[in-house]
Each structure stands twice: as structure tokens, then as C-alpha cells.
Amino acid sequence: MKRSRQAVKRVAGAAAVATGLLATSVGAAVAAPTTAAAQATASCAYPYVCLFKNGVRIGQFQDVTPGYQSLPSRPTGTNSAPITVTNTRHDDVAYIRYSTGSTSCIPPLQSSAFTGTLTGIRISSSSTC
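RESULT FIELD:
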């Protein structure tokens, strides 16, 4: 039976969301989620990628760009106060650049906590990292 490309993409997206929810559930069993992380997820609306520190939104980005958008504030996350990045986009990944030049990728509909100094963000129309 043939499936359309869009149907396959929807099934893959649903599987990615389910995997993310499972990973979140497993992580919650190891360490209780912080109030700041819960607030971060709740206050970032689609189609944004938001940055939070201590539960306060410090940035929000929406545009797909070919290069990195600078983070003029250069937020720094620590073990006790990481920078939480929430990607509410359904089909786009977000790349985070550190002051060291290394990068991390956040899949669609996922959140990640970062330590270190962040210098840029790039939203890509790719659905996978």
C-alpha cells in the first residue's frame, strides 16, 4: 500500500513526539522537573523557539534563517541555573551555538537545558537533527 509523503511525515512526527514524551517521562523519574522548566514549556507558543533562564523568557525566535542569529545578551547557563531552550515548531529543528563554536540541535517539539555561554540560534526547515 502506497503512502503519501505527507502521511509518512506525519507518522514520523507523531513517533518523534511520542519518543520525546517517553524520554521526558523517563527523565522525570530520575529527577523531578523544576518549576522553571515547567513554566518555560508553558509560556512558549507555537511557532517559536524560546530561551528561558530561571523560568523567565529571555528570547524568542521564529524565522528560518540560513545562518545564525546572534544572541547579543550572550546568556550563560550554569548547572544550578541552565538556559532552557524550547522548540515548539512542528517540523523544524533549532541549532544552538556556544561561545566555543560548538553547536547543539533541538528536534521539533522538544526542550533542552544548556550550560555555558550561548551566542547564536538558527532555525532550520529540516525536521531532523
